[in-house]
Amino acid sequence: MSRSLLPSCRALFPSMVLLLALAGGGRAIAAPADSPAPEEPTLGTDLLDGVIGEFPGELLGPVGPLGGVITPTPGTEIFTGTIVSGGITRSYAGIRPIGAPAGAPVLVLLHPRAQSPARTANLTRIGRLAADYGAWIYLPAAVAALWSDHPLTGLVDDVGFLDALITREVAANDLDGRRVYAAGYSNGGFMVQRLACERPSLLAGIAIVAATIRDGVANRCGGPRRLPVVMFNGTLDLLTLYGGSLGQKSAPATAAFWAERNQCAPGSYTVMAIPDRDTRDGTTANVGRYGRCADSMVALYTINNGGHTWPGTELAGYTLGLGATSGDVDATLELWRQLIPYARR
Fold this sequence. Notes:
Blueprint: H1 6-10, H2 13-24, H3 57-60, E1 76-85, E2 88-97, E3 106-110, H4 117-124, H5 127-133, E4 136-140, H6 158-172, E5 180-185, H7 187-198, E6 205-209, H8 215-218, E7 229-234, H9 251-261, E8 270-274, E9 284-290, E10 298-304, H10 331-339
């Protein structure tokens, strides 16, 4: 679908959200500023994450155990595997550079709720990082397509699963355990932050798209370990509200949370506008950065008028129900460029 068709289609989005919010519990309504954030978990992750699951099969391949067929990227090869964790056989897909050199960096990419590894790989074109930067990409699958991103919810030990997967694969394939990064979209972004809080020694940095941090995760975030963090959030995201909601911090407050943990200098936050390269997408963007952090960094890419979408995807026409998609920022390339200079100490 041409981007020139996007603005007219987006006009339908607010009314659709209102109807679904009324039917589904109203996660799109922000809490009053003076309301205390509850420690009890909220339902699910995002009200409308399931919309992402409705991609056309002719573009993304038939649905299979890993949710479709990954579109090949020249110079790479695709692999699949399983691992038993918590008594459950868990599946994952992966993309690696042909030749699979030893000592390669690793990116673990977590899909949104009601999505799949294969479709998330296609949406993000994550194979480019294997082809152009020699990275190994791991795309694990959540049980029932839902990550247990809150410590008080879920019967599945996803933290244990991701720990086991990373530990085994790094050792088995002679990968660089000091350069393991994790990224997540929506429910996957919430899960990445839980992993970072509970297993910080596994990771060299994290990236978060269309997610903030849950109060229940932030309040239990263990240890003082510092991690580089890159965030991408839309100001018109009606699922993960930019300004925060009950049980979730705002996007700026999430960045500030990580900046405090990374010992960034108070008052060091600066904002820079990003050139509006795509004037048809209905969005603009800027990036805010915390300076003088201790062996780390925090960056927040704000997509003005952006929705619950992955910036830079070429499949923006198929996430119209989630709002506008930025054509000015390529989140896949940006998160990698921001994180790869950092290695676990």
